[in-house]
Amino acid sequence: MNTLLRWLLRLLGLMVAVAIAAFALGWYLVGRSLPDYSADLTVAGLGAPVTITRDANAVPHIRAESAGDAFYALGVVHAQDRLWQMEMNRRSAQGRLAAYLGPQLVALDRMVKTLDLGGYARRAFEHQTDETKAALQSYADGVNAWIRHVNANALGRGAPEFFLFAEEGLSPWTPQDSLAILKMMALRLSASAQNEIRRGRFLLDLPAERVADILPDYPGAARLAPPRFASLFPGAEFGPRQATVVDDPILAALGPPPRPEHAGASNAWAVDGTRSSSGAPLLASDPHLWLGAPTLWYLVDMQGGDLAAIGGTLPGTPAVLIGRNRRIGWGMTTANVDDQDVYIHRVNPQDPGQYRGPDGWIDFQTRLIKIDVAGSAPVVETALITRHGPVLSHNMMGVDAVTPTDHVAALAWTALEDRDRSMSAAIGVMQSSTLEDAVSAASLALAPAQNLVLADRERVAMVTAGAIPIRERQSPSLGRIPSPGWVRRNDWVGIQPFARNPRVIDPPTGAVANANNRISDRLYPDHISFDWDAPYRMERLEKELSSRAFHSRDSFVALQNDAVSEMARSILPLIAQGLWWRGASLTAQDEDAAEMKRQALEMLASWNGEMDQHGPEPLIFAEWMRQLTRWLAADELGALLPDVEGLRPLFVERVFRNIDGAAAWCDIDKTPAQESCAFIAEAALDDALARLKRDHGSNVEGWRWGAAHQAQHRHVPLGFGAFGPLGLLVSILQETSGGNFTLLRGHTPGRGDAPFENVHAAGLRVVYDFADLDRSVMIIATGQAGHPFSRWYDHLAGLWARGDVIPMSMDDEDARTGAIGSMVLRPGG
User: Fold this and answer.
1) Are 342 and 197 in contact (CB under 8 A)?
2) Out of 284, 381, 526, 771, which could bridge 522 as a Cys pair, Cβ 3.0 to 4.6 Å?
């Protein structure tokens, strides 16, 4: 017995020793990849020494003798801090994620390779300006210098994630990789095709006037409705209409938006000196994109030769996309240009290698695609290409529901163009000296189309940068629904000249602003789009900008963090007025429920519409609005409900104001009674309160919006469930204020077990003060480092959540004050 005990103790001791050794080895390997901000490196391809000072917030300040060396150093610091993120960005843009992450990512890789984003990026390089080619090459050289340094010095493969997913070394970075990442950004910011497909599906089952309710036009816009979708395909048979929301969180994190509402959104505005307290212009920009850990953005100050720029960069690309130089500043918002169309092509029943064109049968072009899959055999398929673009196979974007039997759907998109010089536009804006120079540089942009907001020391401007298709005036589909591909009237007839793109330079009001609202009153076919974000953010922005004679840097920062919902102020009286009027006569299944309802309505009656994380009112209102959509639309939409589930204020307003007979939605088809909108409002409130009681307890005053509205900075891919506690360790969750329709935007999925998670917000905020540009400020959502065990992984997250900012000075002395390290790159080797 004693012998057995001794052996058990020895075995236990051995297991503990092995565990300790394994932990020590793992920590050693992880520790080797932690960034060292005081390194002294000798690197090949550099023209002269470069100093990189990391300020107190870990922002690198690059000082080089030439622009080429500055871009080189940017490649080094991006790779030093965000190598895993860069590799994920590159692989997602090239359709190579499944080789790392397995079969789950085959669908995304297939779409990217079907669209040939990598091929278009490779071919686009030769069409860039000479300055951009040089910048791309210098940047790639810097990335590769860091990869060589990591390999030569066994620095943990550059990031700990590579130990989990990568079996082979990293391939060298190329200029084309950077262009591909920008292509993928365009895909993630484009939602026109998804809007078309959704509208087409709804028109198959609903009258056009009811589709106009649930998918309403922008308020005040001239309505131009497409025909009944099925009428474009007489005699065709369509499959079952199902929702197309992407439920896989990793696919949603890496690929196109799961719903059009989750595509890009942003705020940007500027005032000239007549509207500022200092007498000099101010500019604010906060792009709203998907959240992640690390955040999408990386802050940098880079100076070399005639190049000087500071602001937000996208790791993997060499441009300061939102920032300033010593003369001008720039911000951006998604322009919502209708730059995609879906074309339905009939396949020749006698020859599946052909499709119908305006003048007869046409041979499909073909391209072989191969998708490598971790742990499985490669997927090899043939992609088809039509005269309009690539065929969307395997139900991409949900096209199967709008594609008749014996037909295929193809995508026309402005980004599918070899001569894409969007990167040259970004580099050109960054190096511009005047507003006119920046507007001229913006003329090179193709996709994603953006509203470029500009300011210098005296003036402000806004211009739409990107390709805007011209459609036939007689097109039956108007570009609003998928079109028969054999009807020539549905074809694009060109791209609008850049000079006709919307622009405002030196506005008489002294201000420019955009919150993804409608930017043009032009009618079809001279329009920009039919689909814009709801106007509530813009209404709030206009109200606050006009509420004071003069603005300051601090007032702009406060406005970026404004959480008052004009939507709530507009909609709440509509849905609650009957219940407020009834007061004590409210009914419920039991007295406790009735008391909870009275308490909730009393709170809402005195609420100012602020989506404050500490209050219960935003949570009550948001859940009430969510349940209203279900009560109003579930019986009519059935399986299509997930496509519109969530907060639909424009729909609710049409219904409760009975615009064009929209009150018909209040009657439940499946009951013999005639339900009123007042009945629906109360039933939805009852369900909302029951749901909140289940999830948050029975103390209404103790409910908090922030508990439900947590910002989800999830690590990709570790933060998405399968990795358990490790995912929690490397992800960042924060309670936040704001909502879908506030300037402090925190967009929510509106469905599932956590319908109010903040998944889409301003990962970058900047405010430039032209009275003293070095008093300008910025913030990103997480931290500079992408290494989960670095102290700089989440060091800015708390400031971001509180609405605070950090300096964005280009002064050397400011950078050295409190600096955490200084790295020197020396030419050699």
Assistant:
1) yes
2) 526
Q: Is the pLDDT of residue 71 over 50?
A: yes
| Among 511, 448, 501, CA closest to 470 | 501
Q: How far is CA 640 from the centre of its chain?
A: 24
Angle between helices 117-124 and 175-189 in degrees, nearest 10: 130
CB 708, CB 697: distance < 8 Å: no
Cis check for the bond before 448: say yes or no (omega within 30 of 0): yes
> DSSP code of 391?
B
pTM of the model: 0.94
Which residue from 340, 504, 482, 515 is spatially nearest to 414, judged by alpha carbons? 340
Residues 6+ apart with CB under 8 A from 648: 214, 625, 628, 629, 633
Q: What is the pLDDT of residue 242?
A: 67
Query: Cα–chain-centroid distance for residue 500?
Result: 27
Residues 515/267, Cβ–Cβ less than 8 Å: yes
What pLDDT digit, counting tens, does each position of 394-421 carry? 999 999 999 999 999 999 999 999 999 9
**CB of 283 closer than 8 Å to CB of 270:** yes
| Spatial contact of 476 and 357, defined as CB atoms under 8 Å apart | no
Q: Identify the CA nearest to 37 among candidates 825, 792, 821.
A: 821
Element (H, E) at 202: helix 192-205
Dig out the tokens for 566 from the structure: 């004009």
3-state secondary structure at position 403: coil
- Of the pLDDT bands very low, low, confident and very high (cuts 50, 70, 90), residue 24 is very low
Q: What is the DSSP letter of 564?
A: B
Measured in residues, the chain has a length of 829
CA angle 759, 760, 766 (to 5 degrees): 135
26 Cβ contact list (under 8 Å, min separation 6): none
Dihedral through CA 252, CA 255, CA 261, CA 265, nearest 10?
Answer: 120
pLDDT, mean of residues 351-378: 97
Bridge partners of residue 471, in order along the sequence: 492
Report the amino acid identity of residue 774.
D
For the record, the structure tokens of 686 come out as 């009852």
Beta bridge partners of 271: 282, 511
Please indicate whether residue 504 or residue 585 has the higher confidence score (pLDDT). 504
- Per residue in 259-303, pLDDT tens? 787 777 899 999 999 999 999 999 999 999 999 999 999 999 999
What would the two tokens of residue 148 be? 């060589």
**Cβ–Cβ under 8 Å, residues 203 and 226:** yes
Task: Tell whether the torsion through CA atoms of 153, 159, 165 and 169 is positive or negative.
Answer: negative
Q: How far apart are CA 268 and CA 517, in angstroms?
A: 11
Residue 37 clears pLDDT 50, i.e. is over it: yes
Per DSSP, the three-state class of 196 is helix
Q: Decide: 785 and 37 in contact? Cβ < 8 Å.
A: no
The string of pLDDT tens digits covering residues 454-474 is 999 999 999 999 999 999 999
Cis ω for the linkage preceding 256 (within 30 of 0): no
DSSP at 755: T
Is the Cβ–Cβ distance between 513 and 540 less than 8 Å? no
What angle, 0 to 180 degrees and rounded to 10, lies between the N-to-C axes of helices 649-656 and 617-637? 70
